[in-house]
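As a warm-up, study this chain.
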Amino acid sequence: MSKQHILVTGGAGYIGSHVVKQLLEETLHSVTIIDNLSTGHNSTIETLTSMLPDHEKARLTFIKQDLSDFDAVEGIFRSNTFDALIHFAASIVVPESVEKPLKYYMNNTVNTTNIIKMCNDYGVGKMIFSSTAAVYGDPTEIPVKETTPLGPINPYGHSKRMSEQVIQDAAAANPEFDYVILRYFNVAGADIKNRIGQSFPNATHLIKVAAQTVTGQRDKMYSFGEDYDTPDGTCIRDYIHVDDLASAHLSALDYLDTAGEKEGKNIFNVGYGHGFSVDEVIETMKKVSGIDFAVERAPRRAGDSAVLISDNSKIKSVLGWTPKYDDLELICRTALAWEEKLKPLP
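Now compare it with the structure written out below.
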């Protein structure tokens, strides 16, 4: 693969930083990160830079910038030549999206629309988009295929579905604009070498919250809903290790480099193809930590679906993507190791 200049929005955040890590370690590409640091961290940028030898540190550039400043964003495109965009920057908390829908439509859909426009105006012909299984809503078809009818049930899912439509319409109007949309299932865990992980405050992700409870950062955790139509009454999700999800982005980038015009516009689920309930995850975290932490039952949260499990056959066959870390105990252990590292000193 020839050297490229990759723009990564939200690259200081959880998933984006793991993708940047793999781009720096496994390719010769240069990476420019745009991030407003609302959930990302300067320390993550410092860690990513430290992974590079001195003579390669110029491969990584960081620009602190909010995507809502369209003029400033255009200035970045005007001053650089990018070969591809990997777009992560978004608000992602489902309950918050129900309470603050306009925040999600502005930050997710409007800002995404503008950055697609910048790609089209400045000749960036490849885009990888961070989408979500939330676009499927509460599907009746399990496992979920890419062809499963879409039916988001919360503003977060709607904002991502609308962004997908903008990408598809822009690509239909511009044959030079190719894309891969990756619909993530439940991302968890941390860098296998424990250098980066999920660091943003007030996290709602189940495995991170459980790890924070183990490490004493929370007195207890809550399990939301126990009357879903599942074997134990709690929600079932397809949990994927963040390093496996990151590798899917590199596979997608390779695919866009070699795909023909028709094939260069595609959508893939990214998950393991099987799920665990909330109770099963909690029990696994108790097992790997050896700590029987406090869990309190709470009512259902708005916008949660009962079961979301991926059919991942398409990404495996078309992209040749092969996950390495399909092991819930490993996912929990890496998440816990990261929380131990983050835990404030007494």
